[in-house]
TrEMBL record:
One Pfam family recorded for the sequence: Mce4_CUP1
Biological classification of the source: Bacteria, Bacillati, Actinomycetota, Actinomycetes, Mycobacteriales
Domain Mce/MlaD: 41-112
Annotated GO CC locations: extracellular region
Record keywords: Membrane, Transmembrane, Transmembrane helix
PANTHER family with a match to the protein in the record: INTERMEMBRANE PHOSPHOLIPID TRANSPORT SYSTEM BINDING PROTEIN MLAD-RELATED, MCE-FAMILY PROTEIN MCE3C
Region Disordered, residue ranges: 341-404, 442-515
Native species: Mycolicibacterium aromaticivorans JS19b1 = JCM 16368
InterPro entries: Mce, Mce/MlaD, Mce_C, MlaD_Phospholipid_Transporter
Protein name: Mammalian cell entry protein
Amino acid sequence: MRTLEGSNRIRNGLAGMLIVILVIGVGQSFSGIPQLFAQPAYYGQFTDSAGLNAGDKVRIAGMDVGTVKSLKIDGDKVLIGFDLGARQIGTESRLAIRTETILGKRVLEIEPRGSKLLRASGVLPVGQTTTPYQIYDAVFDVTKAASGWDIDTVKRSLNVLSETVDQTYPHLSAALDGVARFSDTIGKRDEQFKQLLANANKVAAVLGNRSEQINRLAVNAQTLLAAVNERRAEVDSLLSNISLISQQFTGFVNDNPNLNHVLEQLKTISNVLVKHKTDLSDVLITASKFMGALAEAIGSGPYFKVLVVNLLPYQILQPWVDAAFKKRGIDPEEFWRNAGLPAFRFPDPNGQRQPNGAPPPAPTPLEGTPDHPGPAVGPGSPCSYTPPPDGIPTNANPLPCAGLTQGPFGGPGYPNADVPISAPNPAAGYAPGVPSAAFPGELSPSIQGVPAPPLAPGPPGARTVPVAPTPGPATDIPGYAPPPNALVGPIPPPGPGPQVPPVGDLAPVDQGGGA
C-alpha cells in the first residue's frame, strides 16, 4: 500500500482549509442575493395607517399579489412595507388603503403607473398614497366647518327647536319609549347580536377569500351572455327552420289523408306487442334453449341431425304445402285495388302496354309548374282514394272519379283532378297480359291497353309459356305448347358406345352434309 508523505499532508491540509473558506464565502454571498433567498420589499409613506395590519392583502386590479410586511412610524408619517411576489411596479404608482368588508377589514390597493421600475426597498412618497375616510376625519371636518358659524343664529335655532319639542312632547315621549324598548330588546339579545356579527365576519372573510372566484364567475357570466347574443341570429334561423318544417309536415299530412289511418294501425300493432310482451320473452327464452341444442347437434360433425316432434307424414303435408306456395294467378283489376292505389294512379286503360305485356303506366299528374302549381289531386277528393269495384278505370271511362264531387268523407266542393285523361275507346278489347301472372297450366289473364308487339321466339327447345292459344291439335291444357320441330342440318357424327336409332319426327334430316 502507498503511504502519504509529510509534504503531501501539509498540501492536503491547506487545500481542505481553502475549500472550507470558499464554501463559507460563497454561501454568505448567496444569502445576500435577495432574488435567490428573499423577496424584494417596497415601501409607501402614508399619513395614517387607517387600521391596516401586517399580513393584510396587497392587490393589483382586484387580484392578490402580495401581503403587508411591516408598519413603522417615520417622523409624522407611517412607513408601510409590502411585497409583490415576482411582479414589479413603476415609480409613479399609486397606493391606497381600501375597506374590503363591512366589518372594517383593510386591503392595500396598488395602481401601477410609470415606465421606470421601482427598485427593491424603494419608497413611494405621501403624494402618491391615500387613506380611507374615517370617523375622526368626519369630526375634524365638522369642527372645521362649525368654526365659522354665527353663535346668535345657532341660539335662536336651538330655542325654536326647544319650543317645537315642547309642543310635540306627547308624541316624542311615545317615540322615546319605543326607542327605550328597542334598546332593551337589543340588550337582552346581546349574545345573539354578537353571534350574528361573528357569523357576518366569517361570511365577509369567506367572500374576501373567494373574491377572485366571484370575479371570475362574473366574467364568465358576461362571456356567456356575449356568446348568447352572438348566437341570436343562429337561434332565430333555427326557429324559422322549425316553423318551415312544421309547415311541410302539415302539407304532408294534408296530402296523405290515409296517414292517420296508418298511424292508428301502428298504434294497434304496438298495443298488441305490449300486450304479448311476456309471450315474446317466453318465445325468446325457449328459442335460446332450442338454439343451444341445435348448436350441439351441428357441432357433432360435417352433418347434423334434426328431430322435429309431432310432425305429420310427408304424404299428408305435401298437398297443403303445394297449395300454400305454388304460383298464384293475379286478377289485374283487383290487384291495384288490393294494393290500395288511388284512382288517379291506376294504369291508363287506353295506353300503350309494356314490351313484356305488363299494364301501361298511369297518366302523369300536372303539378309543380307555373301553369299547374298543384296539387293535381286535392286531399280528400274522390280521386285520392282507392275506387270501389264499380269505379275502376275502363276503356270507355278512363277516370270515373273525375266527374264525382262527393268524396268518401265529405264534399261537394272538391276541384277537378288535374290529370290528363286518354280519350274513351269503348271498342277496345282485352288482350293477354304477363304470362307469369297466370294460374299454372292456364293462359295469362286478359288486361286492358294497347297490346305490345309480340315477343321474339325463344331458341329451339326452350321452355316458354305462350301468351295465346297455340295452333295445333286441341289438348286438355289450353296453353299447351307442342314439342319442338325436328333438327335441320347435317347428321352429327356418332358417339362412342352403342347407337340408338332415331324415333319418329325427331330424326334429323340429312341435307347433304353427312355420309
